[in-house]
């Protein structure tokens, strides 16, 4: 069953039934001001940091779901009926409900009793505000008198404190109201120099800023007393819960449309210009008023919307494909790329599943995210890499996370995840391949943000690599530390106390447990680093990286191979994990996927065996599970992985993030049918038809789909903010379609399904537009290329020597 449909031409997903299985959300903003918005107008906004600068409140895990939002109410003055065109919060039955989630905007609307209303929500580029354009049309044969109401609930900035510290917070709330603008200024009187504002383009028939005055005692957002009465009360908040609500009266002739613009924004004043007049306690509004006036003008709001559209056109235009599979096209051309930008902006901080108060930017996560967005935002990728590297520790290790507002490593979450440093090499390598900007390697970057410790970025990569060499275990495999990619395989934790964090508790000295996954990652990173070193003229160093990689590969063959597949790890007792000899957890996806991705065993058939075993034991119709058999009980020596019921999350769930490693593995083996088949199993668009089971948004990937051991096999969870976005994008674009960035140029190496007659693509790469067409003449993956009509040797297209900006590539597969 479907709850809407794709509108590919407009790059929108159109939801036509408001009670989707879960709130289906979208993101507003792409620079500093952000919001999440659900299909029924739920969600919240923040400036830069979802925890520390939260503008509006949201009630997580509420019953019903998804409360707190950007709510509009309409009231028919004649009948006294009132409703919300976005369905929530009033949940009246509506005609023609639709929610269009687009690129950086959302439009929600419906009709009731002949009154049609839509609100378009978006954040203009380069501004710290969101625009709500409400249009109301009278479809009746007679005049209509309507009151329109806006509403939001202000958050007192720190979302964590706001939700817990009521003894203080019920006393601090303050607002000012001037003309049609409500200013939220809690704590502005003391140490803050920022405030929020909620403005309206029309003269007001009333306003409210105190929640209780608006809602009435013991009433909720579904039936505000002041809306029911048809008159806001002009309340001014002193403490308690400041809100913003406007009332505008609309007289509409039959067929007439009127628009009201509301703005919700964030503004910082210079510390010495906070008050006007100076010495008073009144906000100085002089600096913000021009911005408010500008966007309250519907013509300027429309122009800003147009600019936003063009911005997304140009980002998505960097890579467009036309293949025989429309699910592939839709995800590559629109939604997967869009999701990659969301993971770049949000990391894992704010979604329907990430509360925005729990997690900063992950070292490992953000480095991997680069794979998906570096071509769309190279300058911001550069900045992100330097920020990440600056949190690296002098040992080469890393804080597991850092806070976006302070850019400092977060000690509470700790470090010692021994895979972390290698992802920096992977991220930097992706950046160099995309941009050819070698200067980044010479940027001075501190360790642990310590002034004076700056070294060239290149040195950070050297230390990353060395980190593992200095931490090898009894078999010569890398020690795992707190965990590797799988945060939940905690082999040194041995936690038996409820509530302890699996990620920071350590009861073992960590000198025994080893990870075959990190070994595979090390081999891969070593080869990437060798290529970088040799480009820097460091031939001997490059040779030593290759030698270390080869040595590790030999260790994997000797101690990391189980006969039919790659082992996963050795635990603190030196016992195998992910072996046929284990009772549970006999085979894992990560080591098999990543070792083959790294090219290990391609020549001698072990890679083939590993991928066949993965298919046999781990692949399901809904995707590939993490391991089998699932852990049926808690194992002290394994940690969090066994804390989840079988089939969920890391305990044999389908962790979509790692499925692409197997897709790439299959592509490396030349099996395009298998690679694309795995791609399709978790492709959200291809799962749209089973929306009742899948439950999450059909336009973005979820972190997890419940595995076959779960009673809810096939149900997705944790949509949006996951490494799944970048890895799937990378797998389909660079390995299956095979349009691959390299240090030298664009490599063309498609490994597509045998029944595809071919495909076309446009790729803008280092300032040149490549128009690519691939035609299949035989069933294999052998490619013959011609560039602007001339056949070339090999399959790497180097930038045109004569400075041409457009190049045609034709490839024949046989
Ligand atoms: C989450 C984390 C990521 C980790 C994965 C597997 O997605 O953000 O860092 O690799 O879980 O545990
Ligand atoms: C939990 C989750 C895992 C995530 C980690 C982040 O362990 O299962 O997916 O990476 O928390 O701290």
Quick rundown:
About 25% of the residues lie in helices and about 25% in strands.
Identify the notable features of this structure and list them briefly.
814 residues, alpha+beta, 10-stranded antiparallel β-sheet, binds alpha-D-glucopyranose
Structure description:
There is one protein chain. With 814 residues, this protein is an alpha+beta fold. The chain is 27% helix and 25% strand. β26 and β27 form a beta hairpin. It is globular, with a radius of gyration of 28 Å. 56% of the residues are buried. The model has no long low-confidence stretch (mean pLDDT 97). It binds alpha-D-glucopyranose (GLC) (2 copies). Residues 487-488, 503, 640, 649-650 line the site of one alpha-D-glucopyranose. One alpha-D-glucopyranose is lined by residues 487-488, 503, 640, 649-650.
Question: How is the topology of this model organized?
Answer:
Blueprint: E1 4-7, E2 12-15, E3 25-28, E4 33-38, E5 43-47, E6 54-56, E7 71-76, E8 82-83, E9 95-102, E10 105-112, E11 115-122, E12 129-138, E13 144-157, H1 159-162, H2 166-172, E14 175-178, E15 181-184, E16 194-200, E17 206-210, H3 211-215, H4 225-229, E18 242-252, E19 257-268, H5 289-296, H6 298-316, E20 319-322, H7 326-346, E21 361-362, H8 363-373, H9 378-390, E22 401-402, H10 420-435, E23 444-445, E24 455-456, H11 457-469, E25 514-515, H12 516-535, H13 539-559, E26 569-570, E27 576-577, E28 587-588, H14 589-597, H15 606-618, E29 619-620, E30 623-624, E31 627-628, E32 654-655, H16 659-668, H17 672-682, H18 691-694, E33 702-705, E34 716-719, H19 724-736, E35 739-741, E36 746-748, E37 758-765, E38 768-776, E39 783-787, E40 790-791, E41 796-797, E42 806-813
Parallel strand pairs: 38-42
Antiparallel strand pairs: 1-2, 2-9, 3-4, 4-5, 6-13, 7-8, 7-13, 9-10, 10-11, 11-12, 12-19, 13-18, 14-15, 15-16, 16-19, 17-18, 20-37, 21-22, 23-24, 25-26, 26-27, 28-31, 29-30, 32-33, 33-34, 35-36, 36-41, 37-38, 39-40, 39-42
Residues 487-488, 503, 640, 649-650 line the site of one alpha-D-glucopyranose.
